Amino acid sequence: MRPATLAASVAPVLTGTAIAVQQGGVRWGAGIGAFVVGVALQLGVNFANDYSDFVRGADAVRVGPPRAASSGVVAPKQVRRAATGAFGAAGAAGLLLSLAVDVRLLAVGAACLLAGWLYTGGPRPYGYLGLGEVFVFLFFGLVATAGTVYVEIGRVTALTVWMACAMGLLATAILVLNNLRDIDTDAAVGKRTLATRIGRTRTRWLLAALVAAAFAIPVVVSFSMPAVLISLLAVPIGWSGVSIAFASTHAPSLVTALKRMAIAELVYALLFTLATLL
Questions:
Q1: 25 and 153 in contact (C-beta within 8 Å)?
Q2: How far is it, in rounded angstroms, from Cα 179 to Cα 192?
Q3: What is the average per-residue pLDDT within 180-207?
Q4: What is the largest CA-CA distance in the chain?
Q5: Euclidean distance between CA atoms 172 and 185, whole angstroms
Q6: pLDDT tens digits for 10-43?
Q7: Torsion angle of alpha carbons 189, 190, 195, 201, nearest 10°?
Q8: Chain centroid offset of residue 232 CA
Q9: Does the pTM of the predicted model rise above 0.90?
Q10: With the C-alpha atoms ordered 188, 194, 200, 204, is the resulting torsion angle positive or negative?
């Protein structure tokens, strides 16, 4: 299930709900629905990635935590069923949300489901083309955060856009760390992630830029909402992940860095939520 990655689905929903509260109105039923959609989509992506990488032989040599299919712990067909079930749950919750709020959201939901499966599935998976980071920023940042705000208050504000970018940047940083850890094994099996295309050094600097940009956003937002500066208390957690990435090529160390980045995104969202209460 890769629980560390679930921060990338929980944090934007939490942030979006905090924005809805800050704007003076929130539909808690819609917020819960958005939470279900986000988590179910993340689980679906994780299971689909597990299955598709196994089928393509991309996990034949594994340096990260064991995968269900490639390790033999779970039958590949069961992993595929788990992915289908998770995507089905996300689709069902999304359908109810769309019918209750705005039927145009059905198109957004369909795009999310397609993006989740085609990350490593289908004839030309975009995760193998170096486009994974773009789609993570888009769907686990902009869509997840702005979508949550929209279903709760019916509009998207400037604050929403800023914080959606922050969530997207940190979610992308998690993926960059994942691909940095797997850079050698991915290159060996022809998995052309962005990390394998630009190399280890540039990937490290990309990671640093993503995290720095994410933590610059509260500074910008603070001109109209000073309390949001409290989010900067998450800087040491996020930057520790960057420091590990620059200091080590050891897979277990990079797994630790990834977990810290996931924690940083969740703490960032929690602190922003606290700022809205202040």
A1: yes
A2: 10
A3: 92
A4: 53
A5: 20
A6: 999 999 999 999 887 778 888 899 999 999 999 9
A7: 80
A8: 20
A9: yes
A10: negative
Per-residue model confidence as pLDDT tens digits over 56-75: 776 666 666 777 887 788 89
CA distance 235 to 201: 22
Q: Cα 208 to chain center, whole Å?
A: 17
The tokens of 234 are what?
């998450």
Token readout for 197 is 């295309």
Are 20 and 276 a contacting pair, CB within 8 Å? no
